[in-house]
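fyi for ur records
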Amino acid sequence: MAFKRFLSSIIFLCFLFTVFCLLVHRPQTSPEETNVPRHDHVSANSTELDWREKIFLRFKPRPDSQRVVIEIDKITKALWDSGFKIMSLLMDRNLLSVIPYADSGSVSGGEGGGGSYKKNNNTITLYNGSKITIFAPVDEAISFKSYFRTNYRFQIVPIKVDKEDFSACVALPSFYREGFDLIITEAYEFHRIHNARITHWNIYNDNNVVVHGVDNSFNHGATIEIFLLASCVGQLSRPLLVEEE
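which gave:
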């Protein structure tokens, strides 16, 4: 009996490995096939590195960059007032370090500018129309245990995601860039992303930073990633950038 269970486990693992390999090695979409209207989606595997890097490059300031300065206190207050107190504290302490170039307006204190480094009034600066969305887990879903530790970088994506943008099997990059993409798994009666359900829409929304509440932390383990990818075989897509060139 034990041998049968062992054999079944081996077969199941082989199946998951095969599905994963098929997804990784799917043919890439040609550039011509990605020329679709603004609100459509294109294959997540087409120019796989380019589309992610293109999003993150928007955060880098240029000499002619337009910029928007946002007070972190407004974000954390909205989270706190909505009952997401732990995420409020995490964002108050860490949001500035998550967003690339967000502290570019900071200054060095002391005589001649050579003193200690100081943040610029607890604000973040976004350049070139870059936007972020924070998916805040409820307090009881946040863990600080080493194995199940909530990775707050995985809860933030470098684009604006509104309710009307939800479409099943769309992959979204996160600021946890060493991990997998987040995957929208349901977009109709219940809106789910990475198997967590959206419970609070627009806790904060200034059109540059958006915060939604979710009922669980996003799990970035290999098992859940393979399961989510397998559920979207042949359907996985990425959001088309509004200003794609």
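The longest helix spans residues 2-24. thats all i got for now
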